[in-house]
Structures are given as structure tokens and as C-alpha cells.
Amino acid sequence: MRIPNHIGIIPDGNRRWACKNGLRKEQGYDEGLNPGMEIFKLCKEIGIKELTFYGFTMDNTKRPSIQTHAFTKACVNAVTMLHDYDAELLVVGNTKSKMFPKELLPYTQHKKFGKGTVKVNFLVNYGWQWDLMDVKSNNNSGNINEMIKSKFIPRIDLIIRWGGRRRLSGFLPVQSVYTDFYVVDDYWPEFKPQHLYDALKWYNKQDITLGG
After folding, report:
1. Which fold has domain 6-204?
2. How far apart are alpha carbons 167 and 70 in whole angstroms?
3. Which of 120, 151, 155, 201 is deepest in the core (most CB within 10 A)?
4. pTM for this structure?
């Protein structure tokens, strides 16, 4: 089986899962922590070299404050949990905004936990327009890959989105140009290992040409 080097994870459906289970919307975010750690461990066993998780976007911060507090706290907790695993972490997002959690500022430079076996990129207070800001100011001259703010994140082979939505929602537009996109209809808190296995089986059947 052909294994992707780099997988993007869009963990959608936390609020819908909460409503489905009779909870308040903000209570759904904590339920996404354990699936995140589980998929990390599975990818490490399989031999995936790099993962990029969508934490929250700058647009997400327009939600009610009780929700923004909940998903920000969940992102901080996710990084704390990752300390116990062999990972090399990089947090990418608009650090100049007050919505960026100060606790994650030290991780905007690569940090290694344990052996740092798997690279993990975490998009926190991320926005695609923010990412491409310097490209516009340079009048599109030069190497775009060097001008984007997420320049240390390489091309993504496969993106998996939970929650049934068929859209990227601004997820790393430059790195996703030739990415294969797989959708899981179940909500992210309903994660099962079979979701990942099915995505990898599907990816193995794709014709990867990168436009050539």
C-alpha cells in the first residue's frame, strides 16, 4: 500500500455531535481531544511522517465567547497532551491577534517531545488571507512557497475531513493544491480507527500525478 507522507486533519462536527447528544455546543470540543491522540498513535504505527491538524480559524473566533473559550482551551489541552508522545510540534497562526492563546506562543518554533518521531503542525487562529498576506504585498513576485506564513509546512498528500462537509474551509490553500480529499460522514468525536484505514485504502487507489 502507498502511504502518504503528510496527512491533513479537519476535525469537524464537534458542535453538531454535542447537540445530537443533548449537550451544549461548547461541550463538544473536549470530546475531540482523545480522537486526536488516537489518530496520532495510529499514524505513527503506520509510518505517516507528518500530520497537520486544523485547530481553529480566525473566522471561528466570531462565534459566541463561550464557544471560543472552549475551543481555545481544547487546543491548549491538546498541546499539553502531546508532550507525552514522540512528536515534533509547530503551531501556526496569527500570534498578533488577542485571540491567539498565549500559552501556545512557545510552540510557534519547532518543539520536540521524546524522539520527535512524527511532525505535527497545529493551525491555531489560522486564516488563509493572513497566510497569504505577504504574497499580496510583494506583488506576486518570487517564490510563493517562501512568502507564505505557513512556509515551514510542506505539501499535503491527503486531507481527511470529518463531519460530512465537502469543503476545505480555508485549510492551507498553497499546500493543498494537489491534495486528495477524503470525507468521513461521522462527526469527529465519533472517530474510529476504521475511518483512517478506509481513507488510506481509498488514497492507495488514486492516480497521483501532481498535474503532470
Report:
1. Undecaprenyl pyrophosphate synthetase (3.40.1180)
2. 24
3. 120
4. 0.95
